Each structure stands twice: as structure tokens, then as C-alpha cells.
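Fold these two proteins, one after the other.
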Amino acid sequence: MFQHECPKLISPACILSIDPLNRRSLAALLPELLDRISTSYKLAIGIAGAPGSGKSTLSQALVQNLNQTGTPACLLSLDDYYLGSAQREVLSKEVHPLFRQRGVPGTHEINRLLADFDRIRSGKIEGLRLPIFDKSIDDRVAEHEWRSLETAPRIVILEGWCVGVPPQKQIELDLPANEMERYQDARGAWRLEVWKAWKRLYNALHGRLDQVWYIRVPDWDCVIDWRWQQEQELAQMNLKSRAKVVNFLGCFERIVNHMQSSYPQWADLVMEADRNHHISLSQQSRKAT
């Protein structure tokens, strides 16, 4: 087991504003995760999980702890590399209408992600500007608001819902995964293009990530419930009914279900999220051999 050499673990209460119960869950989990990160050499970790599973919160906590205990670390989010709404509008007209909605492989600027990732790993961060995507405006913020890195990191964490997940077999695309696919992608053209982009993303990251960690959720209904609850807590709801949430998340369902069943073959470390967003380390913490 890798040993994390640090003088003191930073409390999640100091670094994130989260629910007290979830904070205790995170505080219990962080030492175990940090203990699996070698700080003696450069390391890249991908963290995957269904929408709403807690990967962003967990990733932020890990990076902040590493930085505050003397190991330079940075966090990249796949979400920040979404294509802007104008670019996706073009895709929707030239490829398939479903590409208007951000989310699936094919709606990210992968070349920029890989270029930024490689520059960070090489330590050539001078002048590097990392994009920030604002979901409230469904677009990236102005370039002068992008972020930069002060120190070349030793640890890079890339979080994203399908990061490091190998694609399903092409033959599995034949049957629709849900009603959205059945009626809005009857001929399977959209899911084929998604699959191609998914395969490209996986192949590109497979040689770049040293480890892939996975947050496993209880089931698909839980993902829908979390998003619906999140919508109801917004000052102005974007999806104003549970049915709209179901339709919005429909584009994620196929890949999430594949992740849920295939994770023993690709995840180096597995965490379990319960229905209350408490995350714990699974007994399965290594790839199946």
C-alpha cells in the first residue's frame, strides 16, 4: 500500500461547505484514500462516478489536503471541457439533435483537455490557462477568468463521470437503453457517435492515468432522485418536473449502467455511495485479475 507522508490531515469542515453527515463520511474516508496515494513520484488519478455521486466534492477534498500538507496537486474536471452551447448547436444540426445537450462523450473538447493534461504532467505550466465551464450559462466563462497554476503539481486528479471507463461492445448499442433512446434515437445514430467519442476518450486517457477510482451508486433511480432534489433546492429550477429530470439524464443512463456492471474489470479502487451520499471504501479496492 502506498503511504501518504503528511504531517496533519486537513479537516473537511475547513475546506468544504457540505452537509454535516456527509462531512463525517468524508473525514473518515480521506485518510484511507490519501494512504493509497504515493507522493514520491508524479501520479495521475481519474475519479469516475454517476452524476451526483459526490466525485467533485471528494476530488476537491483530496487536492486541498494534498496541497495543504506539502504535496503539490491539481484538479481537472471533465465538465470544464464541455463544448459551448454554440458549438453543440452546430453538432446538433450536423450530427444529431441530441448533441445539443451537454453530457455525453462527443460534447467535450478532448484535444484541449489532453493538451492541458500533458502540459501539466510535463511541468510546463507557465502561461497555461485552464478553462472554466459555468453550467448556469451553459458555456465557458470569458478567457480572462480562466485559472492558472502557481506550482507544477506532483499529483493530478481528473474527475469526470465517465473518466477511465472502457466502452461497451458496439453490438450492445443495438437495443435502446431507455425511452429517450427509443424515441429520440430510433435508428441508433446518436448512440453510435457517442460510442465512437467514448472509445476515443478512453483510449486517450488509458495511457495517461496511473489509477482509476470509481464511486458506485445504489441504482439508477437514486441518480434521478438526487438530481430532482438538487433542482428543487435551486432558486430557479432548470428542470421543473421529475419527468424532465428523467429525460435530461436519459443520455447518461446507458454509460452509467455499463459502469455499474463492468467496474470490477477497470476500477483500481472502488467506493460505495449510499442514498444519503455517504461514501465509504468498498472491500473491492483493486482491479479484478
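Now the second one:
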Amino acid sequence: MDIPLSAVRAMVEAALAEDIGWGDITTRALVPPEHLGRAQALVKGEGILCGIDVFGLAFTLWDPSLKIETLICDGSPIRRGDIAATVEGRAASILSAERVALNFLQRLSGIATMTRRFVQEVGDLPTRVLETRKTTPGLRLLEKYAVRIGGGSNHRYNLSDGVLIKDNHLAVIKAYGGDLREAIARARRGVPLTIKIEVEVESAEEARAAAVAGADLILLDNMPVDQMREAVQAIKAASPSPGSHPLVEASGGITLEKVRAIAETGVDYLSSGALTHSFRALDISLEMEV
């Protein structure tokens, strides 16, 4: 994985502590510690695998003596009947860490699978698919990783990653006599030169104003497709020369059914919170062989 191992370990350790608590009393009562077992991660659905290393880490953090064999790598298409990995060692340890390991694997595979479907819908267009910050608290790094595995790209990781002037920011500015131009100017003065300034707008007129005011990116928020197309044209018309207009992002209410039509309006990016909050976890189970 291309994210820090220390961060992943912290997330998995927190999940294990949450789930196992003061001990797995069921397994402790039923399974003697010397009993050995082998388990298979059995795929029962169809999609894109993601999180197989996290799956293994959940077991080895709980019991370092467990042996993990990865049979399918992240980013691979999977279908019903595939075996993604095997786990061997103390049966009690496998049973105790099972749920946490599967939770990560199922959720991340679900995100990657949904992202891949979005990306395939716009595959022949230059528009890039992004997620948002609408992620599960504490799991953002992994969920954004899953979006990349699915073929998407990442938006801001956190509030320190970039400037995004939203409607509520503008409401505060306007309440004290300011306007959009002043908001962009304040942002320019307040952040490093390498940081891009993005502005959220809700109409073609606001989009044009943001382009004239010098925004680097313009986010079209919850616009109908026709209005979105009009906004893209307004942004281009407001630019001093062809090809120099701000990049355009569409967001709000983007579904798999609408993603193609939205991309065809000419936007550069489309961001969907659904990728990380409305996905369906992929069906994968752990089958014990004692």
C-alpha cells in the first residue's frame, strides 16, 4: 500500500481494541489455545479487491504467529468462489480477529468496486473521478486509498490540503461587507503560493464571477446538467485566452446513472461523496478448516 504503515497499524489496532474489548469470551470458553486451524477468505460477490494487506495485518497484530498467504492482490477483479487469502495458526486467534479483518476487506473492496464503476462510465472522457471528505471518521486514509485502487483520484485529504471557499464561508464574508473577489484575495494572502484556490458556486453567473475574480478551480455545486453546461461555457468565456480558464469540478448528487451526462458537460473533475458513504460492502467471508 502507498500509505504509511504506522497509520494503518494505528487504525487496525484501534479496531481490534474496539471489537475484542477485554477478551473474546466465546472463543476463550470454547476453543483450547493449542488447537490449530486454517481459514480461507472466500469471495461471494463480484468486484474489485482492496484491503488484502489490511486483512492480513488484523490477524498478525492480534497474533504474530499466524501465517497469511495472499492469493489475490489489491486492484484485481474478483468473482464468486475466488479465494483471496488464507490464514493458518491458532484457531482461537483466527476466530478473534476474523470480524475486524473482514470489515476492512469488505468495506475497502466495496469502495474500490463502486469507484471502478464510476470510472468505467467516463473512461473515454478526460474527466477524472474524485471522492470527498465524507469518509468514515478515523478511516479516511484507507478509504481514499480504496478510491485510488478503483481507478479514481483523491480530493483534499483534510482542511489543510487546499483552499475551498464554500457558501458558508461567503455568507460570513458577505455579512461583514465583503464579496467573492475579496474572499479570493484574502485566501491568496493567507496561504502559500503553491496552494490552489477553489470556489464553490451555485449558478452560471456565480461561476463566471469566480473565474473573473481569479479562482484556480471552480466547483459547480448541485447544478442540473443543463445549468452545469452553461456554467462551463461561462467560465471559458470569462478567461483571457483559450485554454487558460480555471479547472472545473462538479459535485453534489452525482450518481452512477448521471455521471456520464455530467462528464459530457466538459467538467475536469467530478467528486462524489457516494464513493465513500453509499457504497455496498463486497460479500467476502472467512471459512474455517480445523
